[in-house]
Write a structure and sequence with these properties.
By secondary structure, this protein is mostly helical. It folds into 2 domains: 191 residues, Citrate Synthase, domain 1 (Orthogonal Bundle); 106 residues, Cytochrome p450-Terp, domain 2 (Orthogonal Bundle), CATH 1.10.230.10. 58% of the residues lie in helices and 3% in strands. It has 16 helices and 3 strands. Strands 1-2-3 form a 3-stranded antiparallel sheet. A hairpin with a 4-residue loop joins strand 1 and strand 2. Helix 3 packs across helix 6 and helix 8 packs across helix 16. The two termini are 12 Å apart. The protein binds acetyl coenzyme *A (ACO).
Amino acid sequence: MDQVKKGLEGVVALDTQISFIDGVQGILRYRGIEIEKLADLSYDAVSYLLIYGKIPDAGELKPFSMELIKERDVHPHLLDMLKFCDFEHEFLDALRTAISVCAHFDEDLNDISEQANVRKAIRLIARFPTLVAAFYRMANGLEVISPDPSLSHGANFLYMLRGALPTALEAQAMEKDFILSAEHELNPSTFALRITASTLSDMHSAVISGLCTLKGSLHGGAREGVMDMLDDIGSADNIAAYVQEHLEHKQRIMGFGHRVYKTYDPRARIYRDIAMQVATEKGKSHWFDLAREIESVMYHEMVENKHKPIYPNVDFYSGVLYKDLDIPSYMATSIFAIGRISGWIAHFMEQYADNRVIRPRAHFV
Ligand code: ACO
């Protein structure tokens, strides 16, 4: 038996054509294209790229977007059934239940042909934002708002959330958020999804595996942790004490560090830019300024204590952006999932296309 690699650190589990990460140089590419370039496209175009392997031309993108728009509505009975969900905490539990219920309404549920998988994929990508926005409205005693077919994926989500049109910059920020969250190679939730897919289970089941894994505070749950941390710290005077106390007690500072990136996460840089633009448009830079200061204190604390510096990851400035978009922290992980769904779908398809059941061994002690 080979040596055990705790946390499978450094283990290469499979070949993929979906994304590439260079954790030393801070490079991320989806299907060979730099994340910096992709961040300026639409979420629909990036979803197409992830699923079909190429950036769509206008003739390919339009029908794909039309399909997504057509599938945005969720059955009213589904929302009625979900009213019993616990909306006191992160919506991820409600989303997991919703996808499980959606499976029962899906006529293609147990059809695992490629065509059926594409139909299910479109429905899942289209409905995640509708569900999460509906939870927010239900949790706050507000009427659920139907999707607006004239709006982009990101603009429509903010519209369904607020009942008012977002500004052009807010809509653009939401699109970027979904794009930056869409895909990240064999992160824990994607790996969990691929294990489920490798047993030839269905797409909804695999996505639920992904959701359950995304929830944890060391993975997607860190975004909520960042937002709560910003509230806890409150003002720049409190940063040094907060960071020092956490590091002394070997507690994690949320939104910092990464298993793969040993340098700045390229997504964090793009989030930082768009968060700054939104803060400037709104004339409220409190959270952004606080975050910049936390980043600086964190860097100096690590270096002064002879550790390697730890940089912000994808969850740090996305948490700041959500605060400036007036999104509550209890929605953060679910919104992450709205973006991640298209990457999950791509991995599901890739696993199916060349499958071998994923079944490692354990070392008995
Ligand atoms: N705060 C304080 N110290 C940290 C942090 C952090 N956020 N991250 C890593 N470290 C320290 C560890 O204490 C450890 O120090 P030591 O060598 O003195 O014991 C060293 O850096 C290496 O950390 P590991 O835990 O070995 O790194 P690992 O690859 O296992 O963990 C992880 C990566 C889980 C992301 C970690 O950095 C972390 O817990 N970060 C905070 C949670 C977070 O932001 N998660 C989101 C990640 S991105 C995503 O999943 C979407």
